[in-house]
Amino acid sequence: MTKGLLALGILCGGLVLATTSHARDTTLMLSIEEAMNSPAAREQLDPDIRFYFADTPHGEVVTNHGNFVTNKKTNAFNKSDEEACKWVMLSALISLQERVQAEGGNAVINIESYYKRQPMASSSEYECHAGAIMAGVALRGDVVTLNGAE
Question: Please, what is the end-to-end C-alpha distance for the chain in angstroms?
Answer without folding.
Answer: 75
